[in-house]
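Dear support,

I submitted the protein below through the web form. The confirmation email said the job was done, but the results page showed an empty box. After a refresh the structure appeared. I'm attaching both so you can tell me whether what I see now is the final result or a partial one.
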Amino acid sequence: MATPSFDQLLEAGCHFGHLKRKWNPAMAPYIFMERNGIHIIDLYKTAAKIEEASAALRQIAKSGKKVLFVATKKQAKEAIANKAKEINMPYVIERWPGGMLTNFPTIRKAIKKMTTIDKMLKDGTFDNLSKREKLQITRQRAKLEKNLGSIADLGRLPSALFVVDVMKEHIAVAEAKRLGIPVFAIVDTNSNPEDVDYVIPANDDASKSIEVILEAVCGAMAEGLEERKVEKVDAEEKEDADAPAAGKRRRVRRNEERAAAPVEAEVEVKEEVKEAE
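What the results page shows now:
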């Protein structure tokens, strides 16, 4: 797990905060200084927080759980989509569907509707519809794909959220907090870090800043997934290796039972003879 160095964070512009007049006092512990009316973030604390968040996300991925990436601002959309796809994690880069977490069964119904439309396209039912019905279903499918396509494989609530810009995604953070889902987030100087479980203080407006942090956390998650795969293979190999020995033990036990059966029968006969005499 490679944590970005101070120089890498500096080059990516992670240290640039917002104007002093826009700051949130709760971010004071993460601010290094003020220059030309702009707050400068302490990059040593940023690096430490990236390492902490990466370690936690690595364990979540290793346990086979899902992390939902959320970023609807244009600077983060592409980076989030690319990195989440690489590690096969769900993501939201369009409008956050209100109640996505707190009313998850309804979201699942919408995803099921999308699956039903796909099934209609495959089995030929779609071809038997009128031109108007086809147009309506096609538009509905496109809308569902845009909003929910990236979470189609999310069968249950995610185990964690990774958010870029907690102010913009405040609804997602509020829903996660209500359900007790841990939140990992890139938090700028104008945001409130108190609702975030794993704070990564950094510039959330620059695409390079977002990318360098995503590179670190997604790299850690990829390592966790690889470790899970290796452990699974080792467990299967061990099971295969133990199978012949277990089979041999079962055969020995059966032979012993068969050998003991005549002796027991003979003893029972002798006892019956004695009782008759």
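Response: this is the final, complete result; the empty box was a page-load delay. The chain has two domains: 1-98+158-242, 102-156.
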